[in-house]
Amino acid sequence: MKRVIFIGILAAIYWFGPVAWAQQKALPTVRIGIEAPAGTNTHYHVTKQAGLFQKHGLNLELISFPGGTVGMQSLVAGDIQFATQDGVATLTANLRGANIYFVGGMINTFPFSILSRAEIKVPADLRGKKIVISRFGSSSDTAVRTAVEKYGLRPDKDVFILQGGGQSERFAALKAGVVDAAIVSPPLNLAGKQLGFNEVIDLSESGIPYAHQLIVATKDFLDKNHDMTMRTLRALIEGLSLWKDPAKKPQVLKSIAQYLRLDPEKHRDQMEETYRYYSKTFPTKPYPTLEGVEFTAQILKRNRPEAKDLQAKDYVLYKYVAELEKEGFLAKVFGAGK
Fold first, then answer.
1. Torsion angle of alpha carbons 223, 139, 31, 320, nearest 10°?
2. pTM tops 0.85
3. Residue 119: which CATH number?
4. Domain that holds residue 180
C-alpha cells in the first residue's frame, strides 16, 4: 500500500547526553496521529514535554495531519499505531471495512464555543446567518448542527453552514466579516471575546455526550501489541493527570505556550483560559464512553442508509482502561488532583 505522506512530524526526543540517547534509541517507537495545533491537542504536547512516554518505556513521534481523514488513512496503512479521532470519522471508516476500535476517551463532550458578531446576542439570533466550520462531516460540523438544533434551528435551512478550514482560518473569516459566526476551541473563545465578539453558545455546557477525541487503533494492531497499547495509555493518562494537579500548573502552562505559540507575557490570559477549560474537561477515568459513541452512531444512521445496522458497542473496548483502573494506576496518578 502506498505510504501516506506525513505532514508535520513532531518527534518527542529529549537530549540528555550520550547515555540517555543510547537508552532512548533502544526503546520502541510509537507514532500517534493528531490534527493541526489547537487547544484540543495541547495535551499531547504537554505529555511529550513531560517525558512521560520515555518514563513508560517508549519513544514518541507525534504526527500532525491537516485533517482527520488523512490521519485515518495513515492509521489503516500502518504508518501510525494510534490516532486521535472523533466517533463519526471512526465509525464511518468502519462502515468501509477499516475495523478500528476506541480504546481511550480524552474528550467526551463538545469542547467548542460558537463566536458571533456582537449584535448576535442569543442563539435565536443565528437564524439566517452563516456559521463557518472546518469541513463537512467533521466534529465541528456535528457540533454546530447539534447546537443549533437544540435551540430550534434547522441546519442548512435556518442557518447556513460553510466550510472554512482550521480554526485559525475560521477565526480570520469571522474577523474579516465573511461569516456571522465561527466555531472555535479555547483559547480562541477568549481572544474573540476580547475583540468584541459574543460567545453565543458554549457547547461544553450543553451536557451532550459526544465522542470528540478518542484514542483509536486497528484491531490487527491491538491484537498483536497489548504491551505497547498499555504503555501508550499509561503515558497519555498520566499526562492528563498533570492538568488536574495544581502543583503542575506552571509546567502545563509552559507547554501550552510552546505548542500554541503564545507569548507568555502578552498572552497569559489565553494560556490560563486553555488550562482552565481543559483541566475541567479532561476526565479522570478516560474510558471511551459508549454513550458518546452511540450518539455519533445515531448521527450516521440518520444520514447514511448503510449505517442502519451499525452497533457502536462492537467497537468500544473498555478493557484497557479497566485494567489500569484495576491495578490502581488511575488512583495513583490522579490522587493529587482529586
1. -40
2. no
3. 3.40.190.10
4. 113-205
